[in-house]
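Regression test case RT-17, inverse folding.

Input:
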């Protein structure tokens, strides 16, 4: 077994929804793991993942229950749940911060958040050294937008200064967390789950505001990957509270080679822009394939479709049809040469209150999951199971064959895995410019 290579298969995934934003000016916590019954049924949920034939799970410990203060943690639930994932040989893509922070941090306006969070990320990596895949902060752009531009969550502010402050703190926290995790696990791979957006002008006089929004949608990933901004976006950040020193922190970042660009696409990801700059949902216009090409052209990284879903609907076929459409889009961009390495239906079970974007705690069940909240499989779950069975052995043999150097939990101690970590550690000392995923 000494010469065994890491697995080279396409990553079919799902996730356990672990959003925890606060509303009501911080008085109310919306905890999706609690709302969906995961705290009581996590063993059953993991068994369902295994039954589906899914090898990858977007998952993370509840940050507000685990991270109790500076250097203070309650690992009990994480120890139990991650031990079971390791036993089942399910590869977690660890989601450490999903739309919320512990009460003692406050919100994303707190300048102490990045330094405190990277300490938490390192503590997790040290406790679970067999974990390799991470999404340190989920949907950075959406988190900053909903918290500090729309005024929906957490700080509930609605101005450009608050948005830029939240964004720079969130992305800095993500970058610093990656650095700390790499010191513990040199061959860690980071999958940035980020919403892929597009803004359509509905009239000639709306072109200008649409262009600005189409530039701003890239800000989180531009900063995260150390991409030099155009003058307009640079001035926007400077005018709204970012300093030159803060900008150069991002510009000097050299972690892109450890990353896969995860992009999320829903029917709500495209927008119509009115003359006055207001927006409303446009529905699917370009679709996943066209927007993914835009993001890939900008960053030139391997891609994973990290989130999608649709309500089952009155006909009972809407979610199944959407799954097929998203998969067709994945195949289209992959066949066109975009290195797509994974696909995710999000999430494993139905969700609660996403019909109001978690702005109200009503207990409304959203039929979006592979399973309902009684853990009974939905038609889209059956369809996803068939899709995985049909395609998992086909994709790796196509002409575009990608090697994802993932080490299964059961192989973490084997000699090839130890050698891979040693090579990765040496590469960190002499940084390369190649991405984490390479052609076979």
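Golden output:
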């Amino acid at each position: 077994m000494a010469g065994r290579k890491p697995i080279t298969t396409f990553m079919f995934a799902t996730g356990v929804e672990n959003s925890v934003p606060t509303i009501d000016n911080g008085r109310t916590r919306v905890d999706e793991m609690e709302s969906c019954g995961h705290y009581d049924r996590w063993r059953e949920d993991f068994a369902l993942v295994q039954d589906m034939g899914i090898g990858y799970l977007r998952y993370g410990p509840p940050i507000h229950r685990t991270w109790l203060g500076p250097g203070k943690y309650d690992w009990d639930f994480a120890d139990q749940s991650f031990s079971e994932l390791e036993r089942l040989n399910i590869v977690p893509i660890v989601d450490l911060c999903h739309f919320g922070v512990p009460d003692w941090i406050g919100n994303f306006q707190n300048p102490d958040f990045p330094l405190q969070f990277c300490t938490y990320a390192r503590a997790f990596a040290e406790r679970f050294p067999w974990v390799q895949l991470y999404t340190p902060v989920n949907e950075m752009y959406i988190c900053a937008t909903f918290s500090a531009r729309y005024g929906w969550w957490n700080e509930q502010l609605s101005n450009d200064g608050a948005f830029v402050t939240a964004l720079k703190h969130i992305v800095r926290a993500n970058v610093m967390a990656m650095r700390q995790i790499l010191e513990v696990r040199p061959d860690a791979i980071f999958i940035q789950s980020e919403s892929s957006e597009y803004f359509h002008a509905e009239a000639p006089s709306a072109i200008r505001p649409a262009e600005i929004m189409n530039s701003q949608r890239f800000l989180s990933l531009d900063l995260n990957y150390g991409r030099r901004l155009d003058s307009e976006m640079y001035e926007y950040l400077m005018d709204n509270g970012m300093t030159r020193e803060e900008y150069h922190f991002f510009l000097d970042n050299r972690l892109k080679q450890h990353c896969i660009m995860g992009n999320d696409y829903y029917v709500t990801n495209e927008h119509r822009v009115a003359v006055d700059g207001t927006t409303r949902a446009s529905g699917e216009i370009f679709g996943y394939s066209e927007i993914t090409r835009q993001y890939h052209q900008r960053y030139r990284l391997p891609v994973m479709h990290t989130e999608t879903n649709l309500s089952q609907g009155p006909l009972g076929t809407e979610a199944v049809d959407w799954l097929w459409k998203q998969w067709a889009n994945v195949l289209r961009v992959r066949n066109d040469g975009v290195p797509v390495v994974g696909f995710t239906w999000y999430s494993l079970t139905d969700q609660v209150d996403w019909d109001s974007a978690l702005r109200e705690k009503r207990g409304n069940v959203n039929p979006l999951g592979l399973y309902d909240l009684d853990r009974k499989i939905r038609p889209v779950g059956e369809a996803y199971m068939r899709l995985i069975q049909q395609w998992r052995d086909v994709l790796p043999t196509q002409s575009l064959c990608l090697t994802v150097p993932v080490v299964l939990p059961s192989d973490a101690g084997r000699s090839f895995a130890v050698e891979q970590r040693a090579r990765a550690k040496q590469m960190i000392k002499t940084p390369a410019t190649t991405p984490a995923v390479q052609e076979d």
